[in-house]
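The data are quoted verbatim for reference:
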Amino acid sequence: MKVGIVDYGRGNIRSVENAFLAIGADVCLITTPEELEGITHLVVPGQGEFGDCAANLKKQGMFGPIQEWAAADKPYLGICVGYQLIFDSGEESPDAEGLGIMRGAVKRFPDVGLKIPHMGWNSVKLTDPGNPLWKDLPDEPFFYFVHSYYPEPENQEHTAAICDYALPFAAAVTRGKLIATQFHPEKSQHNGLQLLKNFCAIEA
């Protein structure tokens, strides 16, 4: 098992790398499609603007290979904007193309008097508690969030966890060997590390 973290200049790469190292994973950073050779588990983190992140993936030639990786149902983890990018589009960057791995759009939180961005610890409700993703985690685990936008999947059957902030939203999705989370596992202490262990346990 070898974890490749896509480094496209738009993510807390070192924190993600250190979290995987903390659980004993074999990790390397990926900046070109050629470096995917030998990788069994792919991680796409991300922080910042939806369109900027998408543009950087295209600039590095990683946009298409990531789509192909997901289409082949290989182990895939998207984090924060790396989660949002798996959808078709985002309100933050209306002209930008998402990866389109899942149907859906990324929307801004409505103004209901809560602080935006949604920042800090929040519990999530597991919609599929038997999913191996949640192995050895509590029924309503707490994770760390930092975001102003949230994905709205067209197919709610893929929603694996729901968080309630301004409205209930999909905090995580799964489909086959794909996992994507709006929260940051690498900043979520024990629960986050356990989730990364569960991701690494997915058979390549």
About this structure: Helices lie at 13-22, 50-59, 63-71, 81-84, 189-200. The radius of gyration is 15 Å.
